[in-house]
Predict the 3D structure of the following.
Amino acid sequence: MIRFLKKKSWSLLNAVGFGGSVQLQMDSALKQYGWFQSFSQRMSVNAAGDPIPWYTYPFIFFLEPRLSTSLQVFEYGSGNSTRWYSQRVRSINAVEHDHEWIKIIAPKLPDNVKLVEKPLGDAYIQAIGEVGNQFDIIVVDGRKRVKCVKFAVDYLKPDGVLILDNSERHWYQEAKDLMHAKGFRRLDFRGMGPIVGYEFCSSVFYRDGNCLGI
């Protein structure tokens, strides 16, 4: 995976040539956003090296001022996004299937995060049901995303929102159709994000009177 990301990201720099890449690093938005920092570290970080979600930059900028310390979040998948949310919301529950990744990320998580390990399959998809409450924000950014959306949507609070990352992928269309059928509208945020050199899309599904004030 890292080899693939490196090849895709270097294609951006090669396209503009050495002089162009230097100019990009000197005064570009990519430098201001921390893209070069994230590419060199192979981690989703900003220009200061602080953790940020692996969402598109437009969505990060849209989402951050709308978060508050009253919100409860559930994440499918964990990582620097978990660390980022933990500084801005009340609590986070997250599920992760990768044991080796858990050993890396768990020591970096604060007390308001509860991370559980579940094998891929029903246990992973249904992990949200074991928490025993509903959530303001549900983030689907791990594996089995269509099935996770189908199961998790019923665990949203009445004013809750659901975030689906990499929503441009055609194999997630079923999940988008389901959310529309349940009365949710969708905002798409397409653009570049950390680490990689290509565009993708982060989407948020919401209804009237939602917790983000959309």
Remarks:
- The radius of gyration is 17 Å.
- Residues 78 and 117 are 10 Å apart (CA to CA).
- Residues 1-10, 15-20 have pLDDT under 50 and may be disordered.
- The chain has two domains: 2-41, 57-206.
